[in-house]
Structures
1.
Amino acid sequence: MTVRNALYAQSGGVTAVINASARGVIEAARQNPDRIGTLFAAHNGIVGVLREALIDTSSLSDDQVTSLSQRPGGVFGSCRYKLPPLDDDPEGIYPRLVDVFRAHDIGTLFYNGGGDSADTAHKLGLLSDQHQLGLQCIAVPKTVDNDLPMTDCSPGFGSVARYVATSLLEASLDVRSMCDTSTKVFVMEVMGRHAGWIAASAGLVALAADPSPLLILFPEVPFQPEAFHAEVDRLIEQHGYCCVVVSEGVRDDCGDFLADSGRTDAFGHQQLGGVAAVIAGMIVENGGHKCHWAVPDYLQRAARHLASATDLSHALAVGRHAVALAMDHHHQVMVTIERISDSPYQWKVGHAPLAEIANVEAGVPAAYIREDGFGITEQALTYLAPLIEGDASQVLRHGLPDIQTLPLQCVPRKLSDFKV
Amino acid sequence: MTVRNALYAQSGGVTAVINASARGVIEAARQNPDRIGTLFAAHNGIVGVLREALIDTSSLSDDQVTSLSQRPGGVFGSCRYKLPPLDDDPEGIYPRLVDVFRAHDIGTLFYNGGGDSADTAHKLGLLSDQHQLGLQCIAVPKTVDNDLPMTDCSPGFGSVARYVATSLLEASLDVRSMCDTSTKVFVMEVMGRHAGWIAASAGLVALAADPSPLLILFPEVPFQPEAFHAEVDRLIEQHGYCCVVVSEGVRDDCGDFLADSGRTDAFGHQQLGGVAAVIAGMIVENGGHKCHWAVPDYLQRAARHLASATDLSHALAVGRHAVALAMDHHHQVMVTIERISDSPYQWKVGHAPLAEIANVEAGVPAAYIREDGFGITEQALTYLAPLIEGDASQVLRHGLPDIQTLPLQCVPRKLSDFKV
């Protein structure tokens, strides 16, 4: 058996636990020196491959590899970059990729990303088949949006879910303290342009001994202002206050984003996010209730300090299993998480064909959304609950996460420049 | 020595650790049954006193009292309510307070709040002197804004500081991963209308092994757009990205709030917060850099999950010491934190006269702000560093903070209704 090199790349929006998947890939690759020579990591995803910016992961000590689980963001750099169609490539992207893979004798690609990245990995698999590169393409799942099909959940999501539910529970206790003479509605905007999984995770506050009065606005449910205001008024009447969690992707009856529907920011620009302020404005206008609003933005997906232990285990396992699949000669597959049971929560890793994953978005199913559209069902709660279980301990230094400086340097290039 | 009752009240914006002070007061009061009879807690601060809505804290078991340290927000309810001047009281607020204090034989008041609350406690002390109520007034400090004079720091601040620095460090790793093809500037808005302590705490990322490139906008420093954009451009040139932490209270050259200076939200209303979006808009307009922005709002001051152990110790200690001061016949004083040394960090509790505290705001001193106005000095770092030390462990249930439901009920009223 010849020993060829492998390449790991991070792609798309990063998460609190994506580096645990990197750790999984690196550790498993190190256990197979007879099959994998050098494991490179692309600097900034596929863009780094095009630029031939490749980091030799053997510069990391075993301890440094272990420490990757502690670190949010993408340690090797990620990117937003969509490959052109295979048969319409005026810029010569694919020939360049072929050159880079050949120049560094890459026999396996571990591509760590979400739906778009599965598409990239799939295209590279087809490219390999066309050019007989012998490049095994294995996708490692990751997305806070939890919208990958064929897998029970996506690494990255459980930690955001824990962040959202914890933050909401804490903020609701704050609002409850003050609602008699101050704020009565707290609006929190969460990520999820097309799928409402992150918004749904706010419903996990139902697990608390004393749940917060909560309305959720999903991208899957057209926004109905009258019903919304009536429900806000009802909750305030009953509890003295309420919380609203709104997905950035919530749309009106015509299918337009609420945050984009002709509304502009203070400069006349289309708003950069900010649907929370739109909803808060509506509440003030309608009922005169004092509102506060929050937009955690990147804080939610970078919050390694609130990572769920379950999510971190998933992230590590999918990285390790990607290597196992490669050793088993799989090609054009994505690692999946398969749920065995809800309670006790049991799961295992599996795999599914990339062709069935690329560009498919799995939104929140109707059975998970309450009939009135403003909350989640028991079935959703059963699904979500195990994903936020467990605290993923962190090493601290001066009261802050101890993020090490790592020796990451690109290896000497063998090819000419390529402009991306 | 006669045994009289005591009253504890929470006032103003709540914090992640204010209930640890409540715990301190309750525990210490329980240790002095020969001096303190019933310890009441006002439901919703001074408003609850006016309404004669008083909770008998003896309904809480010792374990429940201990668990208060786990709980953000104000467990007994707080309020925003400013007492009128003592000599201009057309609504009869003060006679009502006298009635309530007498009806329940209140001999000591523990008033847990910030600057405005110190003013309230001070007025109540004067009221007691006027009417010979024999009411000892002890203020227990609390404010995330850290703007109380005469104390080294205010309980509540250290935890927000840890939240801000941790969140910023995490988000900056996210932005760094993606800056080559995506967001180059991350703007985070923090609380602090008049004092920039919370904004300053972002500078704690300098303690990280690999500090984030950061600009801070303080309310103490008039906003200079040209210098700001030049510094943003410089940091992006050098690091590929940067973070901006902006205090909600940042003002322009004319002293107007940036968030209020004629700029309106999508509905034509004056913006509810949202200076982060204003700054992001300016950055996009000036340099075309892709921006993301976050407004954690209440999440920052409710984040018990990120409380610093130091802050939690302070909060507990000031509660306990308030009772000790009462036992020592002090009146019209606030408990203070006194710093003995920076490193190793050593501190003790003390006290200061309320008359010197009420309505005085202690902003960030000039020596703590870097000469260019966009960061903190070494001296500031030395001051801030100990305040975020230590993780304050939390009890979890289903992956969320385990917030207990407590038996809190108001005692029967003895007086007639009073409309507040």
Note: The domain at 157-301 of chain B is CATH 3.40.50.460 (Rossmann fold).
2.
Amino acid sequence: MVKKNLVIAHGGGPTPVINASLAGVIMEAQKHTKIDKILAARGGIEGLLAGNLTDLSDMSPEDIDLLKNTPGSAIGTCRYKVTEKDYSRTTDVLQKHNIGYFFYNGGNDSMDTCHKVSLLANDIAVIGIPKTIDNDLGGTDHCPGFGSAARYAAVTALELGMDIRALPIHVCVLEIMGRNAGWLVGATALARTQGFKAPQLICFPERPFDEGKFLNDVQRLWDSQKGIVIAASEGLVDHKGNTIADSGLTDGFGHKIPGGVAQTLSNLIISKLHIKSRSEKPGLIGRASKLLVSPVDREEAFEAGKISVQQAASGKTGFMVGIKRLSNDPYRVKFELVELDKVANYEKKLPDHFINADGNNVTDEFIEYCRPLTGGDFPDYFNIDNYE
Amino acid sequence: MVKKNLVIAHGGGPTPVINASLAGVIMEAQKHTKIDKILAARGGIEGLLAGNLTDLSDMSPEDIDLLKNTPGSAIGTCRYKVTEKDYSRTTDVLQKHNIGYFFYNGGNDSMDTCHKVSLLANDIAVIGIPKTIDNDLGGTDHCPGFGSAARYAAVTALELGMDIRALPIHVCVLEIMGRNAGWLVGATALARTQGFKAPQLICFPERPFDEGKFLNDVQRLWDSQKGIVIAASEGLVDHKGNTIADSGLTDGFGHKIPGGVAQTLSNLIISKLHIKSRSEKPGLIGRASKLLVSPVDREEAFEAGKISVQQAASGKTGFMVGIKRLSNDPYRVKFELVELDKVANYEKKLPDHFINADGNNVTDEFIEYCRPLTGGDFPDYFNIDNYE
């Protein structure tokens, strides 16, 4: 039997569970006798091209378990897109290190790189492992990483709502990641549980920001209740597609420095409605929390890693491991292979049937879609409205 | 035996454990036969003046336990300072509701209100319960609420550092609460554990912000390592005492709208050093997290509530329950009574011996002071630098 080495690299931003997929790859690969070394590229495909590899073959079960439960990317990552000029170097490196199995864990840009590598390397099994907190990857019902970031977004909106309503002097705008897709900001709607009502308003990047309508919504809410939380996507744009958060500043090269969406909205509420307002922006913290990982998401990420190795070992190449939902209650999924060229470079936005007609809330259908991914019940809180 | 009612109110911003003190008050008061009803003012002293009271006398042990483990202020709070014009109304309300025991849970402003009530009401036992995440209250080694917010600040800096170093293209500025005191921003130094190095720089409100020195520090760090986290206090001021975060905007009444400190520093790094930078501002989220409560802090808050009732029942009045540290290892404290007029309106800054000579880090002495308050070990993370 010809033994070949395995290499795995991470692409794009880290997630709370990208290491869980890595743990799944390592644990599964250790079982396959035809896989020799288990190598990790340090710093994504750029690290691979530079030959920056670490041998993880003998990782202990304890370390694999700790890795599975660690957010961030333990082996680093990059935002580099492979282009034609890198092709010969890529094949050289793969050959030099006797690679037979190549795994790239990432989002839509990374799946493009993964697809290119699969076309270049005929004798190598190339499999993509899906990953993005933004959930904007095609070919899969949802993407590992999203469920945990959604749990963070929802629990954070809930806890912020509890804080704000205790001293209800502000409208508080909470900025949520997700780039151009509203999946994550929509997930804040799950905070409305245990009798709590925040967020009272959601702003999606799929709906052009309309200042007049927004201010009407805020004033109407303020007139009827205090302690309001607005969840706003970092990707909010106006009717022309420009960010609403222009800081007015430029960097040393003349490029615009973006401002914060939440702070922009907060300033608008202060200056136009004369209502006190503040903004919070957890930003990257929202994709790095160990304690708010969704157990469902972690296990799916781990499985996706394991299944990638199984499929590559059985000779499959040029696919991404996708997730197909079989049922919502009980929540059941199966993993399936999706051709890489069908997912590369495609950005899956939040569809219309998940946003209400008014454009400021999700639909019940979205709640049903999202809830199981966040891993079941949130922590319990005392709510005096439920008392007696 | 003359039975009298008890009333408790919360003042100032909520903390993750202010409800734990409330739970301690309720649990203890239920044991005292001379205490009749246990009343909570809804919305702080303002709620009390408006006669907005809720009867919590019969709260079940299960609800008390849930309350003890719930961040935010379950009974609301306010920022209202009692002045002479409220005196007669205050005594009227206390008399009307047959109050014999008055508890105010808050920071230095609230202790001022508590002191005034103690002078007004001769036949009422008035006790202050300390509370502030800022830790700027005098008369006590530390203040309930601080340990949990410190745990949040440290774990968040740790997790943010893990995320940032995986894709080390930015300097990331993390904004930390604490108003004019550097206790909380200093606590981020506890993140340097398990082989992790963030935050690499700390900016204290006790040290006037010096742009040149700051930029030198950042450039020097960037030249030697990537993936840098800077922890910056929300209260940073320049040599004249003015906030460094002026948004340049005014509200409808001509008052300045403050900008964000972290975003201001981030913009500075981009425009002056041409290094990519971003900022995160968890803000109120940092005082509202259930999962990052310090168990030590929660128990101390609970004890402070219980002891307040014991002291009031034994006839003490005009005091705050303070905490005196007996030893660090093992960590031991005792509770003691501090005269209210000695703590009212005083703001305890981070002392010089807790800040290093360069003004950009804490001292080991601060780490020893702070660590036990955060409740012991943080979650475990896999760090590839420790692997092999």
Note: The longest helix of chain B spans residues 146-166.
